[in-house]
Amino acid sequence: MTELPVPEDVLKAAHRIRGCIEQTSIFTCKSLNDLSGAELFFKCENLQKTGSFKFRGASNALQILAEQGLPRAVATHSSGNHGAALAKAAADRGVEAQIVMPNNAPKVKQEAVQAYDGIITHCEPTLDARESTLKKILKKLEAEEIPPYNDSRIISGQGTAALELCNEIPDLDFVVTPVGGGGLLSGTALALQTEWPQIRLVGAEPLNADDAKRSLDAGRLIPATRTDTIADGLRTSLGSLTFPLIQKYVETILTVSEEPIISATRLIWQRMKMVVEPSGAVPLAVVLNHSDIFEGKRIGVIASGGNYDPGIR
Amino acid sequence: MTELPVPEDVLKAAHRIRGCIEQTSIFTCKSLNDLSGAELFFKCENLQKTGSFKFRGASNALQILAEQGLPRAVATHSSGNHGAALAKAAADRGVEAQIVMPNNAPKVKQEAVQAYDGIITHCEPTLDARESTLKKILKKLEAEEIPPYNDSRIISGQGTAALELCNEIPDLDFVVTPVGGGGLLSGTALALQTEWPQIRLVGAEPLNADDAKRSLDAGRLIPATRTDTIADGLRTSLGSLTFPLIQKYVETILTVSEEPIISATRLIWQRMKMVVEPSGAVPLAVVLNHSDIFEGKRIGVIASGGNYDPGIR
Asked: Which pLDDT belongs to residue A246?
C-alpha cells in the first residue's frame, strides 16, 4: 500500500492486531539509569512474538488482507526479522509465505523463518538479486508482496509499540528508536502524533549505515553506500514513504559508531539479563553517547528485537 | 551457624529479607513447553539482585547479624556469585566484605564483587589455598565468616526462592534446582516441607561434578574429584549440613553431560531472550534429557543465576 499513512492508521492497527500480538513488557534497570544519568523505559520488543517488533507490521498487513479475502501466498525479501514475522503472521492464517533471503543472512534468522514454515529462496546478497528473485516468485505464485517497511500497513503496525509504551508511561521527554528502513521510526512518529506530540522523537542510527542522517541533512533520499555494521537489522535505507514521515515528525537522527553499539548490547545482556540483538541496543548506545541531550530526562527506548545468537565458551 | 536448619527457618528468613530482596518473576515459554512436552515455570533468580539466588542467603545472614550487632567485616571464599552477593548485602549495611577468590575466577564475577565494593584477595585455585587465605583474613580483621552454603542462615535464605515459586504456582508436580554445594537444593527441600511436601524435588547436577549423586548413592559424603564443567557455579561439593538435608528430603539427583548443558543454556537465551549462566540452565538440561520422568508434568525450574558474559561477533 503506497499512500502515506496518518496517525489514525496506527490506532486502527492497534485495534486490528490486539488479539494476535504480545503486549510486551516495559522494563527499567537501576544500574543503566545510574550509568546514563537518565530514566530509561525499555519497551521490550525482543519479547514480541518472533523476537521483534516486525510481527506487529506483518500482523497488521495480514489482518487487512484477511478482511479483504486472503491470498494463497505472501512474499517478501528480507535478511532477517521481517521474514520470520511475515512467515508466522501468514502461517497463523493458513497462508503460504515465500521469503527471499540473501545467502549471507544470519543462520539464526534463516532458522526462524523455517520454524514458522516460511519457504526460503536464497539469492546473492545484492538489492538487485533480491528484487529480481522476488519478482519471479510474485509472478509465478500470484503472491501478494508485503514489503519490509515501505508500506503503509507495515508502518502503521510498527507504530503500535509506541502507543503501548506511551499509554503505560505517558510523561516521557523522549522516545528513541533504531532506524534502518524507517518503518519503526515513522510508525512511532505517527503514534506520538495521536496523543503525545510533545514527546521528542529521536532516530538512533549506526554511523556505518547513516543514510537516514544524511538524507535528512540533504533534504532528499540518499541510499546507504556502506552498511558494514553489526546492527544487521539497520543496514537498509529509507524508502519513499518512511522518508517524508521522518522529515516531518522526527526531531533528529543521532548516529553512533560500532564500539558503543557493541558495548550497549553487552550492557543490556549483563545488567538486564536480557538478550537483545545489536540493532535493538543502538538506542541505548545513542543515549549513553549523548549525555548532553539526555541527562536527567525520562526516555522511552524501543528495544526492537532479540534475534541474536551469543557465543558460549 | 552449624546446627541443622528446619522448615520454619525458611519462613523466618522470608519474613526477615522481604524488604531487601527482589521477589523475582516466574516466566513461562511456549516454545520450551512444546520442546519438553511439559509445563515449565522458570523462577528467574537471574533477575535477583547481584544476578543470582545467592543474595537471598547472604541477606539472611547479614540481617541476622544486624539483629545481634553487626561486625566490622564479613569474609568468605568464593569463585563467584556468593562473593558478589555477600559484598552487596554487607555494603547495604555499611559492613566491609572481604572476598577470597581463586585467581582463575571468571572476570565478570570478579568485577561484580568490586562493583559492590567487596575487597578481593586472590589466591591459588585450590581449596587449601582458599581456606588458608581466608583463615588469615578472619584472624587479622576479626571478621565474621559467612560460608557460601554450609551454614544454616545461608540454607534458609536460599529456600525463600522456592517459597515464592510455590506460593504463586502451588500445584506443581516437580521442583528442579541445580546442585553444587547444595545450599539451594537443601533450602528448597525445607521450603517444600512447609506446605507442599507432595511436590517431588529433584537436584540437577553436571555429570562432570557429580559428587551429590555419588554421595547419595554411597550414603556418605564423597567430595568431587573432577569439576571440569562449564557450570562454574556447581563445581563445589556438598557439605556437612546440606548433605543430610538432601538425603532426607530429595527424591533423586539427575546428572547431565556438558553438551546438553550448553544446549539448554542457548535455548533459554534464544527462546526466552533471557541471559542465564550455564549453572542456571542445568535444570532445563535435566528435564529435556529425562522426558520419561517429566513429560506431561508441571515443573518449577529454578533458573539460579545470570552472571555470564556471552560472546559477541
From this structure: 98
pLDDT at A303 over 70: yes
Q: Residue B217 is part of which domain span?
A: 7-52+152-303
Q: Do A273 and B46 touch (CB under 8 A)?
A: yes
- Give yes or no: residues A99 and A224 share one domain: no
The set of residues, in sequence order, having a beta carbon less than 8 Å from that of A278 and lying 6+ positions away, is: A229, A230, A231, A232, A261, A262, A265, A308, B312
- Same domain, yes or no: A224 and A293: yes
Q: What is the pLDDT of residues B258-279, one digit of tens each?
A: 999 999 999 999 999 999 999 9
Nearest to A294 by CA among A280, A283, A308: A283
Q: In terms of domains, do A173 and A257 share one?
A: yes
- Are residues B127 and B82 in contact, defined by beta-carbon separation less than 8 angstroms? no
pLDDT of B19 higher than 80 = yes
Residues A193 and A299 in one domain: yes
Which chain A residue's Cα is nearest to B115? Answer: A31
**pLDDT band (50, 70, 90) for residue B134:** very high
Residue B176 contacts residue B300 (beta carbons within 8 Å): yes
Name the band, by pLDDT with cuts 50, 70 and 90, for residue B106: confident
Per-residue pLDDT band for A1 (boundaries 50, 70, 90) equals: low
Enumerate the residues of chain B whose CB falls inside 8 A of the CB of residue A266.
309, 312
* Residue at B80: amino acid letter: G
Chain-chain contact of A51 with B273 (C-beta, under 8 angstroms): yes
The total of structural domains in chain B comes to: 2
Q: Using the beta-carbon criterion (under 8 Å), do B269 and A275 form an inter-chain contact?
A: yes
Q: What are phi and psi of A159, to 5 degrees?
A: -65, -15
- Which residue, B128, B145, B162, sits at the end of a domain? B145
| C-alpha cell at position B29 | 515459554
Cell for B144?
565474621
Q: Quick one: pLDDT at residue B129?
A: 92
Indicate yes or no: CB of A273 within 8 angstroms of CB of B273.
no
Contact between residue B152 and residue B2 where contact means Cβ atoms under 8 Å apart? yes
Q: Rounded to a whole number, what is the distance in Å from the CA of B304 to chain A's nearest CA? A: 12
B311–A310 CB contact, under 8 Å: yes
CB contact under 8 A, A310 and B269: yes
Q: Where is the domain boundary, B80, B115, B145?
A: B145
A60 with A208, same domain: the answer is no
Chain A residue with CA closest to B49: the answer is A271
In a domain, B2, yes or no: no
Q: Which residues in chain A touch residue B312, judged by CB atoms under 8 angstroms apart? A: 230, 262, 265-266, 278, 310-311
Judging contacts by C-beta atoms under 8 Å, the chain B residues touching residue A114 are none
Judgement on whether residues A16 and A64 belong to the same structural domain of the protein: no
CA distance A250 to A217: 12
Chain B residues closer than 8 Å to A269 by CB: 275, 309-310
State yes or no: pLDDT of B229 exceeds 70: yes
Do A167 and A43 lie in one domain? The reply is yes
| DSSP letters spanning B137-178 | HHHHHTPEE--SSSSHHHHHHHTHHHHHHHHHS---SEEEEE
